[in-house]
Amino acid sequence: FHAAKTKTLQTVWKYLKDPFVLILLLVWLTRGISIIFSANLQASLFLFGFFTTVVALGIYIYIEFKNKPQDLLKYLRFYIYVVFALTLFGVIQLVLYQQTGNIIGALWNVPGKLPRIGSTFWDVNHYGSLIAAVLPILGVFILTDKPWKKKIIDVIFFILLFASLLVTNSRTAWMLGAFAFLTFITVLIVKKF
User: Fold this and answer.
1) What is the DSSP letter of 66?
2) Helix (H, G, I), strand (E, B), or coil: what is residue 157?
3) What is the pLDDT of residues 139-166, one digit of tens each?
4) DSSP 8-state secondary structure symbol assigned to residue 122
5) Angstrom distance (rounded) from CA 149 to CA 129
6) β-strand 116-117 against 107-108: which pairing, if any?
Protein backbone atom coordinates (compact mmCIF):
# COMPACT_ATOMS: atom_id res chain seq x y z
CA PHE A 1 0.00 0.00 0.00
CA HIS A 2 2.78 2.42 0.93
CA ALA A 3 4.61 1.73 -2.36
CA ALA A 4 1.45 2.40 -4.38
CA LYS A 5 0.80 5.60 -2.44
CA THR A 6 4.40 6.76 -2.91
CA LYS A 7 4.28 5.98 -6.63
CA THR A 8 1.02 7.95 -6.94
CA LEU A 9 2.58 10.91 -5.15
CA GLN A 10 5.63 10.72 -7.43
CA THR A 11 3.36 10.70 -10.48
CA VAL A 12 1.38 13.69 -9.19
CA TRP A 13 4.60 15.55 -8.38
CA LYS A 14 5.94 14.79 -11.89
CA TYR A 15 2.85 16.36 -13.48
CA LEU A 16 2.91 19.34 -11.12
CA LYS A 17 6.42 20.14 -12.37
CA ASP A 18 5.16 20.22 -15.97
CA PRO A 19 4.85 23.91 -17.05
CA PHE A 20 1.53 23.45 -18.86
CA VAL A 21 -0.16 21.73 -15.91
CA LEU A 22 1.37 24.20 -13.46
CA ILE A 23 0.12 27.23 -15.41
CA LEU A 24 -3.39 25.77 -15.71
CA LEU A 25 -3.49 25.05 -11.98
CA LEU A 26 -2.18 28.52 -11.11
CA VAL A 27 -4.84 30.17 -13.28
CA TRP A 28 -7.46 27.92 -11.66
CA LEU A 29 -6.19 28.84 -8.17
CA THR A 30 -6.18 32.56 -9.00
CA ARG A 31 -9.76 32.39 -10.24
CA GLY A 32 -10.74 30.47 -7.13
CA ILE A 33 -9.18 33.04 -4.81
CA SER A 34 -10.80 35.91 -6.74
CA ILE A 35 -14.23 34.61 -5.68
CA ILE A 36 -13.70 36.47 -2.39
CA PHE A 37 -14.23 39.74 -4.29
CA SER A 38 -17.38 38.59 -6.08
CA ALA A 39 -20.50 40.72 -5.97
CA ASN A 40 -22.58 37.69 -7.02
CA LEU A 41 -21.25 34.68 -5.11
CA GLN A 42 -23.66 32.13 -6.60
CA ALA A 43 -22.86 33.08 -10.20
CA SER A 44 -19.13 33.14 -9.41
CA LEU A 45 -19.28 29.67 -7.88
CA PHE A 46 -21.15 28.31 -10.91
CA LEU A 47 -18.60 29.89 -13.25
CA PHE A 48 -15.73 28.55 -11.14
CA GLY A 49 -17.31 25.09 -11.21
CA PHE A 50 -17.47 25.25 -15.00
CA PHE A 51 -13.88 26.52 -15.17
CA THR A 52 -12.79 23.68 -12.87
CA THR A 53 -14.19 21.10 -15.29
CA VAL A 54 -12.44 22.84 -18.20
CA VAL A 55 -9.12 22.78 -16.33
CA ALA A 56 -9.59 19.11 -15.38
CA LEU A 57 -10.45 18.23 -18.99
CA GLY A 58 -7.47 20.22 -20.27
CA ILE A 59 -5.08 18.44 -17.92
CA TYR A 60 -6.57 15.05 -18.75
CA ILE A 61 -6.30 15.62 -22.52
CA TYR A 62 -2.76 16.94 -22.15
CA ILE A 63 -1.63 13.94 -20.11
CA GLU A 64 -3.52 11.43 -22.25
CA PHE A 65 -2.22 12.67 -25.62
CA LYS A 66 1.15 14.16 -24.66
CA ASN A 67 3.10 11.19 -26.02
CA LYS A 68 0.68 10.23 -28.79
CA PRO A 69 -0.37 13.39 -30.63
CA GLN A 70 -1.46 11.45 -33.73
CA ASP A 71 -4.34 9.97 -31.73
CA LEU A 72 -5.63 13.48 -31.05
CA LEU A 73 -6.15 14.20 -34.75
CA LYS A 74 -9.38 12.20 -35.03
CA TYR A 75 -10.85 14.22 -32.14
CA LEU A 76 -9.75 17.48 -33.76
CA ARG A 77 -11.38 16.38 -37.02
CA PHE A 78 -14.63 15.60 -35.19
CA TYR A 79 -14.46 19.00 -33.47
CA ILE A 80 -14.05 20.69 -36.85
CA TYR A 81 -17.05 18.76 -38.23
CA VAL A 82 -19.14 19.98 -35.30
CA VAL A 83 -18.08 23.59 -35.92
CA PHE A 84 -18.82 23.15 -39.62
CA ALA A 85 -22.31 21.86 -38.79
CA LEU A 86 -22.83 24.95 -36.61
CA THR A 87 -21.72 27.06 -39.56
CA LEU A 88 -24.25 25.36 -41.85
CA PHE A 89 -26.93 26.12 -39.26
CA GLY A 90 -25.76 29.73 -39.32
CA VAL A 91 -26.19 29.81 -43.10
CA ILE A 92 -29.72 28.44 -42.68
CA GLN A 93 -30.39 31.15 -40.09
CA LEU A 94 -29.24 33.87 -42.45
CA VAL A 95 -31.18 32.57 -45.45
CA LEU A 96 -34.35 32.07 -43.38
CA TYR A 97 -34.09 35.58 -41.94
CA GLN A 98 -33.45 37.15 -45.35
CA GLN A 99 -36.36 35.27 -46.95
CA THR A 100 -38.99 35.38 -44.19
CA GLY A 101 -37.77 37.71 -41.45
CA ASN A 102 -38.04 34.84 -38.93
CA ILE A 103 -35.26 34.41 -36.41
CA ILE A 104 -34.17 31.00 -35.15
CA GLY A 105 -31.27 30.36 -32.83
CA ALA A 106 -28.92 33.20 -32.01
CA LEU A 107 -29.24 35.67 -34.84
CA TRP A 108 -28.89 39.32 -33.90
CA ASN A 109 -30.74 41.38 -36.44
CA VAL A 110 -29.18 44.81 -36.89
CA PRO A 111 -31.61 47.23 -38.59
CA GLY A 112 -30.34 48.28 -42.00
CA LYS A 113 -27.32 45.96 -41.89
CA LEU A 114 -26.46 42.31 -42.33
CA PRO A 115 -27.50 40.42 -39.18
CA ARG A 116 -24.89 38.97 -36.85
CA ILE A 117 -24.90 35.17 -37.04
CA GLY A 118 -24.47 33.28 -33.77
CA SER A 119 -25.64 29.80 -34.80
CA THR A 120 -26.68 28.07 -31.56
CA PHE A 121 -24.57 30.35 -29.33
CA TRP A 122 -26.43 33.12 -27.56
CA ASP A 123 -23.40 35.39 -27.77
CA VAL A 124 -22.11 35.86 -31.32
CA ASN A 125 -18.70 36.77 -29.91
CA HIS A 126 -18.34 33.27 -28.46
CA TYR A 127 -19.34 31.69 -31.75
CA GLY A 128 -16.88 33.88 -33.62
CA SER A 129 -14.11 33.00 -31.17
CA LEU A 130 -14.80 29.29 -31.65
CA ILE A 131 -14.45 29.71 -35.41
CA ALA A 132 -11.28 31.80 -35.04
CA ALA A 133 -9.77 29.08 -32.84
CA VAL A 134 -10.55 26.34 -35.37
CA LEU A 135 -9.26 28.12 -38.49
CA PRO A 136 -5.51 27.64 -37.70
CA ILE A 137 -6.11 23.93 -37.13
CA LEU A 138 -7.78 23.74 -40.52
CA GLY A 139 -4.82 25.63 -41.98
CA VAL A 140 -2.46 22.97 -40.65
CA PHE A 141 -4.67 20.23 -42.08
CA ILE A 142 -4.68 21.95 -45.48
CA LEU A 143 -0.88 22.01 -45.48
CA THR A 144 -0.30 18.52 -44.10
CA ASP A 145 -3.06 16.34 -45.57
CA LYS A 146 -1.77 14.10 -48.35
CA PRO A 147 -4.88 13.09 -50.30
CA TRP A 148 -6.16 15.91 -52.52
CA LYS A 149 -9.74 14.98 -51.68
CA LYS A 150 -9.15 15.77 -48.00
CA LYS A 151 -7.34 19.00 -48.91
CA ILE A 152 -10.28 20.16 -51.04
CA ILE A 153 -12.75 19.40 -48.23
CA ASP A 154 -10.51 21.26 -45.78
CA VAL A 155 -10.32 24.28 -48.10
CA ILE A 156 -14.12 24.32 -48.48
CA PHE A 157 -14.52 24.11 -44.69
CA PHE A 158 -11.96 26.89 -44.26
CA ILE A 159 -13.70 29.23 -46.72
CA LEU A 160 -17.14 28.68 -45.18
CA LEU A 161 -15.84 29.05 -41.63
CA PHE A 162 -13.93 32.21 -42.55
CA ALA A 163 -17.03 33.68 -44.20
CA SER A 164 -19.05 32.79 -41.11
CA LEU A 165 -16.43 34.47 -38.93
CA LEU A 166 -16.85 37.65 -40.96
CA VAL A 167 -20.65 37.50 -40.69
CA THR A 168 -20.51 37.26 -36.89
CA ASN A 169 -19.34 40.89 -36.97
CA SER A 170 -17.37 40.17 -33.80
CA ARG A 171 -14.34 42.43 -33.64
CA THR A 172 -12.97 40.38 -30.75
CA ALA A 173 -13.18 37.18 -32.79
CA TRP A 174 -11.61 38.97 -35.76
CA MET A 175 -8.69 40.02 -33.55
CA LEU A 176 -8.36 36.46 -32.25
CA GLY A 177 -8.40 35.18 -35.84
CA ALA A 178 -5.77 37.74 -36.91
CA PHE A 179 -3.55 36.88 -33.94
CA ALA A 180 -3.95 33.15 -34.64
CA PHE A 181 -3.10 33.76 -38.31
CA LEU A 182 0.02 35.75 -37.43
CA THR A 183 1.11 33.07 -34.97
CA PHE A 184 0.44 30.40 -37.60
CA ILE A 185 2.53 32.26 -40.21
CA THR A 186 5.32 32.92 -37.69
CA VAL A 187 5.52 29.25 -36.73
CA LEU A 188 5.43 28.28 -40.40
CA ILE A 189 8.32 30.64 -41.23
CA VAL A 190 10.37 29.51 -38.23
CA LYS A 191 9.85 25.84 -39.18
CA LYS A 192 10.97 26.52 -42.77
CA PHE A 193 14.20 28.25 -41.73
Assistant:
1) T
2) helix
3) 989 988 888 999 999 999 999 999 999 9
4) S
5) 28
6) antiparallel
CB atoms within 10 A of CB 153: 15
* Alpha carbon of residue 114 to chain centroid: 25
Q: From the CB of residue 78, how many other CB atoms can be counted at a distance below 10 Å?
A: 10
Specify whether the CB–CB gap between 110 and 116 falls below 8 A.
yes
Quote the Cα angle for 7-13-15, to 5°: 110
Assign 161 to helix, strand or coil: helix
Q: What is the pLDDT of residues 68-104, one digit of tens each?
A: 888 888 889 999 999 999 999 988 888 888 888 888 8
Is residue 24 within 8 Å of residue 57, measured between CB atoms?
A: no
Residues 98-133 pLDDT 10s: 888 888 877 778 777 788 888 887 788 888 999 999
| Residues 150 and 143: beta-carbon distance below 8 Å | no
pTM: predicted TM-score of the whole model, two decimal places: 0.74
